[in-house]
Amino acid sequence: MRFLFRFRSLSVQWGLLAAIMLHIGRTQVSAVSCPTDHSTILITIDTLRVDHIGTYGFPIARTPCLDLLSKSGWTWTEVMTDVPLTLPAHCSLLTGLPVSRHGVRTNLGYTLAPEYETLATRFRQAGFRTAAFIGGYPLLARFGLDRGFDTYDDHLTRSDGTNTLMLERPAFELVGAAQAWLERNPGPQPWFIWLHFYDPHTPYDPPGTFAAMFEHKYDGEIAYTDAALTKLFRYVRKYFPSESRPRLIVTADHGEALGDHREQTHGLLLYQATLSIPLIINWEGTCPPALIMNTQNALTIYQVHDLIFETRKDKAELAEYPLTEGHGDPPFYFESCHAFEKYRWSPISGIRQGQWKLHAGPRIELYDLEHDPQEQHDLAVVNHDQVAVMTGLHASLSGTSATLQQKTIIESDQEVLSALEALGYIVNTQSTGQHQDRPPIDLPDPKERIICLDDIEHGSELVRQNKFSQAKAYLEKARQCDPTNPDVRNDLGLVYQNADNFRDAARMFAQAVELAPDNARYHNNYGSALKKVQDYEQAQLHFQRACLLDPHFLPAKLNLAILYYETDRKELACHLIKTVLGINPDWSEARHIATQMECQCH
Predict the structure, then answer these.
(1) Which pLDDT belongs to residue 195?
(2) How far apart (Å, rounded) are the C-alpha atoms in residues 579 and 575?
(3) Is pLDDT of 420 > 90?
(4) Residue 76 forms beta bridges with which residues?
(5) DSSP 305-374
(6) Residues 90, 254: contact at Cβ < 8 Å?
(7) Do 502 and 533 form a contact (C-beta atoms < 8 A)?
(8) Residue 106 in contact with residue 424, Cβ under 8 Å?
(9) How confident is the model over 10-24, as pLDDT tens digits?
C-alpha cells in the first residue's frame, strides 16, 4: 500500500499559525498561512476498517459521501493508530501524543491526565467556540476528553426516551444534535466541532434497509454512517458559503479484524486490519495546496493532530523517535494491553519502520508490508538481521511504554461496569490504582489463545443474557482451552450460583481469585457464594478485600452492608449503606435496601 494524494485546493494549516514543517518519515508538508476565521469539523468514525470504504478499494461499499470528500480533497492510504481501542486512540489523536506519553492504555480504569492539552484546548485558546458530539460510551466526559470543549454532548439517550446503557447514539441523531448546536451558535466567531460516530462498533445492528444491503451487517453500519454524513455535509453546503465553509477531517480510531488472523473484532492483536485507519482531509478556500513528497512510512494517529493544529516538538520529544544508521524513516511504536487486563494473557506491542513491521511479545513476528500487506508470511525465522534492527528499535521506544503504568481510577460503579461489559471491554477491576512494574513473564500469547476466544465470548455473552444453562457448555470448553483464564472461572461461578449450587460456585470463584488476586469483582462474587453457604467470616473478608481493592466498587460495599445487617451489626450496616447512597443516590437497589433498614438508620 502506497502513500496516496489527490491534489486539490487544500492546505494543512490555517490562520493563527506561522508556516511549519511536519516531518512524516522523509515527507515534508510545507504549510502556509490561511485566513483566521475558518471553522473546522473533525469526524472520527469508530471501528472503521479502511478497506471497507469505496475510495479505498471496497467494490461493494455504499459510501458515496466519503468517496466524494476523498475525490475533492486528499486521501492518505498509510495511516496507523497506536492502540486499537477507542479511548486510548482518541487520546492520541486529540493530544498529539503517543500512548507512551499520555498513558491511557485501555478503555476502563483510565482517564486522561489533566496536564495534557487537547485540540479543543488549543482551539479555545485561539478564540474558537468548541463542541463535541459523542456517539459511544467509552468517550463519556468522565474519561477526560471533554477538556477544552465549551459543549461536550455525550447524552446517550435515544430520541424515544430510552436510556441506552447499550451505549451508542445513532448517527442521524448525532448529526441532528450537531446541527442544533450550529443553529444556536450563529455569527462570525469560528468554531471547532468534533463528531464521534460509534455505529460500526459491535453490536452490528444497522437500522431499516441498511441491514439488508450487505451480507455482513458491519458494512450496513458503515453505509448508515455515511448517509448521516451526507445529511451533515448538505447542511454545511447550504448554510455556509464557500468562502467560509468549514474544513473537514475524517478519520477513525482503529479498524475491525472481521476474522483476519482469527480475531473477530479488535483490541487483542496488532495486525493491519485493526491498526490501519483512513484519513480524508477536505476544505475549500484561498490557500494553495501544500507540497508533499512520497514516502513508504505511515502517518501516525497522533501526527494527524499536527495536520489539524500546530504541536510544538522540542528536542526531548523528538528524542523519542531515534533513527538508526541507514534508516531515514522514524519508527512507530504501537501496543495493546487489552488481552492482559481482560484475560491475563500477555500484553503485546510492536514497531514499524518503513516497510518493516515487528510484532513483539511471547513470540516475535516480522513482516514486509510492502510485499505482504496482509501479514501472511512471517519472516522472523529467515531475516535475523532485520529482526535484530527492529528489536533494538522496539527496546529503545518501549522502555516504560511496555510497562502497565499507574491508572487514574474512575468511579467503578455498577453503571460503568455494566456498560463496558456490554461492549466486551470489562477488565479486571484494580482498586489501588497500582500496577506491577511489568506484567508477569510466561503469560499466554494472545495470538495462540485467540483460538479459545469464540467459546469465551459466547459463554460470557450468554451469562450477560442470563442464559446460564446454555453458557455452561461454552465455558467448560473455554476452561479446557485456556486453563489460566480467571474470567472464565468467574463466569462458571455465576452459572453454578444461578443453579443454587453455591459450593461449586465458591470453588470457581476461589480459582478466579487465586489467578487474579487483585480483582475486586472476583472477591465480591466469592464473598456472595461464601455467604450463601453460611461462611460469614470468610465472606466478610472477601467483601472487605473487594472494597480495599476498589473503593469505588459499590456492589461490594452494598454486599458488606447487608452482611453486617444480617449479622446484627446494624450500625456498621447503616453507615456503609449511607456511604453507598452518598456516592450514587440514584441506585434503586441500594435505596430499596436502605428502606428495609430504615428503622435501624437513625
Answers:
(1) 98
(2) 6
(3) no
(4) 279
(5) HHHHS-----HHHHTTS---TT--SPPEEEEE-HHHHHH-PPPEEEEEETTEEEEESSS-EEEETTT-TT
(6) no
(7) yes
(8) no
(9) 223 222 222 222 223
Task: Name which of 64-68, 122-126, 341-345 the model is least confident about.
Answer: 341-345
One DSSP character per residue, 487-524 reads HHHHHHHHHHHHTT-HHHHHHHHHHHHHH-TTBHHHHH
Q: Which whole number is the average pLDDT over 130-153?
A: 95
C-alpha cell at 99: 500512548
Phi, psi (deg, nearest 5) at residue 584: -135, 85
The one-letter code for the residue type at 271 is Y
Each residue of 559-577: b (16+ CB within 10 Å) or e? bbbbbbbeeeebeebbebb
Specify burial of residue 19 (Cβ count, 10 A radius: 0-12, 13-18, 19+): exposed
Contact 292, 5 (CB under 8 A): yes
Query: According to DSSP H, which parts of 209-277 are helical?
Result: 217-239, 272-275
The reported pLDDT for the residue numbered 26 is 27
The SS3 of residue 130 is strand
Average pLDDT over every residue of 74-83? 90
The predicted-structure confidence for 172-200, as pLDDT tens digits, reads as follows 999 999 999 999 998 888 999 999 999 99
The count of C-alpha atoms lying within 13 angstroms of the C-alpha of 124, restricted to the half-sphere facing its C-beta, is 15
Residues ≥6 apart with Cβ < 8 Å to 96: 119, 302, 303, 305, 306, 311
Which residues have a Cβ under 8 Å from the Cβ of 162 and sit 6 or more positions away?
Answer: none
Could you tell me which residues come within 8 angstroms of residue 427 by beta carbon, excluding any fewer than 6 positions away? 106, 107, 108, 109, 338, 341, 342, 420
- How large is the average pLDDT for residues 372-383? 96
Task: Please write the tens of the pLDDT for every residue from 57-70.
Answer: 999 999 999 999 99
Taken as a whole, the chain contains a residue count of 602
Contact in structure between 167 and 227 (CB atoms under 8 Å): no
| Helix or strand holding residue 184 (H, E) | helix 171-184
pLDDT band at residue 32 using 50, 70 and 90 as cut-offs: very low
Q: For the residues 270-276, what does the mean pLDDT come to?
A: 97
Task: Report the chain's C-alpha Rg in angstroms.
Answer: 25
DSSP letter, residue 51 = G
Residue 99 has pLDDT above 50, yes or no: yes
Q: Are 411 and 550 in contact (CB under 8 A)?
A: no
How many angstroms separate the CA atoms of 464 and 425, rounded?
A: 13
